[in-house]
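Loading example: each entry is read as two labelled lines plus one structure line.
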Amino acid sequence: MAISATIVDIRGKAYEPIITELLFENKTVADNLVSFEDDVKANTIFTENQNTVAMQAYTSGAPSSSGTLTITDTLITPTKLMFYQEFDPNSLRSSRFNRDMRPGAWNVASSEFERTVLAAYAKEVSYDAELKFWSGLTAATQTAIAALSPGTAQNQVGAAEQSWAAAQTPALVDGVIGRMIYNGGALGTRIKVAGTTISSSTVAAEYAKVYAAIPAVVLAGAEKPFIYAPHSHKQFINIYNVSATYRDLFSVQGDRYFYNNVEIKFVPLSENVMVAAKPSHLVWCTDLVSDLNYMEINKIANNRDDMFVKHVFTQFTHVVNQAFNVLYVG
Amino acid sequence: MALKIKSGEKIQAYGAGCKEFDENSNLSQAILEHLKSRFPDKIEEIKEQKKEPKK
């Protein structure tokens, strides 16, 4: 397959550098915004334990057992995924990339092409994997969410959640939002917060709803929770702060944003969706985290000169301690 | 009363990465009720057809 390109035959200089698309860096991986479990090949068991105790009056006779010891196992096999594209370096012979091709009809490899175009392609791969980790939704889960009876109670799916699910283009993996709404063949046990449109004028009120819903035990623990929010909220907060009398509701320290001392992390969530959880409750399961950075570039076959670029990795999103995590959907 | 998205209107409820809803989107009444709370100008009630009086 030829490279899809509008190429001008080079006669003089080329503008440096090559102008590439603007992309958010995959901060979820780079900054460890969630928990990573690697070496997860297939049928890996994640175990959660919930216990209840019941105080009872002493008896010297036979006591009655009361309380519960609950162990829940979830079997996880990450989905094996790939990105694959073919390209023909011969298409670049008359372009700017011929400047670093070595002499000889056999030599059409350009290190500038690999360094810039393919490097940008690799960033797109990483971003897409991050996007699917947060916002992916499989067709099966989309159908299951649509089939639930909506209501306002915590043990019912929200109309807003169903609305979000209906707006998704089905993906190969379920992400955090999808897994919080539906997992294990049933509605998730997330703390549901019904929301609305978030803008610079509503951002304070909507963050207040999320903060109020975070269980006190989560705020008090040694591991602090984050509020995960879409990238657009950084601007909404900055605009809000311009007219705020006291900037202690949303405090900004360098590039770190906080709401009432809970740090906000900006990730590829859908607009009008927020998650509040401890990082250890959101798990990125994979065989090897660095698989996402490994890109194979090679000839398609020994007797051909056209080439391929390929990524192979596995991915699964697991949400633990669901009853302590807040999902806000507007 | 049943609701629908107004003809010609598009609703982008969750950002550019998500699908737009329009009058042809297959949405439940519960979803339309929710969308009406966020986009009241883009949702309308389905008007019942006037019944012709018997002659």
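Residues 6 and 42 of chain B are 6 Å apart (CA to CA).
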